[in-house]
Amino acid sequence: MIVLRAIVVIGYHYNKKYITLIDFMLANAMKEKPLPPKLQAWIEARKKCRLSHAHIQMARELGLNPQKLGSINNHKQEPWKAPLPIFIETLYGERFNKQLQEHEVKTIEQLFQLQQQKKLPKSSTASKSN
Prior knowledge:
Elements: E1 9-12, E2 18-20, H1 21-30, H2 37-49, H3 53-62, H4 69-72, H5 84-96, H6 108-129
Antiparallel strand pairs: 1-2
Helix pairs in contact: 3-5
C-alpha cells in the first residue's frame, strides 16, 4: 500500500514534528469507534456480575435491563433467590423452550463489529447513487 503525504501542514506535534493533513486523516480513520452506551452497559454488567458471554446473550434476548442485574444477583443475602446465571438459564428455557448452543453465542464486541460491517455497504451504495 502506497501512502502519499500531503504538503499542507496543519500544526505541530508535541515533539515539534509537522503534522500533515494526510497524517491527521489517517490517524482519525484508524481509531476504533467506541461502543454505544447500550452495549457498554452490557459489558459492565458482564464484568460486575461475572457472567459469561452466553448468559449476557440470553439476558439480552429476554429483554432484561443490564443496570438491574445487580439487584437480581442478590442470592447471598436472600437465599431463596437462585444465582444469576442459573436464574437467566431457567428464564430462557421457560420462554424459548430451548438451551442456547455454544456455536450460537456472540460476544458484545462481535455484535458491534457486525453492526459496523452492515452499516458500511449502505453508506457506500448511497453515495454512489447520488
